[in-house]
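Hello forum,

I keep getting stuck at the same step: I have a sequence, I want structure tokens, and every attempt I make locally crashes halfway through. Rather than fight my setup again tonight, could one of you with a working pipeline run this one for me? It's a single chain of 301 residues.
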Amino acid sequence: MVCLLMMIPPIRFARDKADASGIIAAWIALSFAISSARAEPSLLADEAARPLESDMVAAANLVEVAALVGDTARATMLAALMGGQALTASELAYLARISRSTASEHLAKLVEARLVAVSKKRRYRYYHIASPLVARMIEGIKAVAAIEVPPRYQPRSAQDDALRFARTCYDHLAGRLGVAIADALVANGYVVLDEDGGEVTDAGARFLTAFGADVTSKSRSKRIFCRPCLDWSERRYHLAGLVGAEICRRLLELGWLMRERDTRAVRVTPAGRVGLNDTFGLDLGGDGRARSTAKIETTTT
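Reply #2:
Ran it on my machine without issues. Output:
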């Protein structure tokens, strides 16, 4: 019986499906050992304690990440990097209103925790969000903070209004404009969205390809193809994943959107007002609302 228990793989925190399968197999073997009624109590106690140890390790990791994100300066820098652009330590220090040396210390911690990555170009070091997984975590925190947490008084400003109208959310478009584009695609049967995920229809693939968004390389990409992302300001879904990123990239490439300096906000150009109306059927009124006015035409390129 001792030999049988020694063959059970160590039970640890499941990091992926393969790990989960290993844990299930371990528990099946352990259950079989218990049912034979001759297992040594001390060994059974050791095996039973291991899942608790794994939970404790997972909790410690959670505390570490929460502490890193929970600092005001680091949270401000992470929010700035959610614009999708790589920024220098000096730029992030300015946005967080801290010194250059303090920003470097914070960034070193974020890089060590793999929340932020750094690349070097000539004599400059540029920081960016390490992965889409980290970006989704930050999006989720912002959504919970905006929707679930009791509201706090916050004076409205022109910058705040601009962010609520249109902004980049890591690599895709958010705000009222991002939600309106998602609504238009869903209304025309080009995209199917629900809480669990998203799907581009055949008609949608043709439309997006004609628009100039590359959605044909999904099989070669490790990224999630199409998913809903809860908008923290609108409290509704906009498009994320490869499809959302391609739409945002194309809008910037066409010059329909322009990035604003030192903020995630983007503004719609005069050409963009015409293009968004002709392509997505959106009427950008003077009150900042994006209204759907017509069916999308697939002939626009």
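The radius of gyration is 24 Å. If your local run keeps crashing, start a new thread with the error log.
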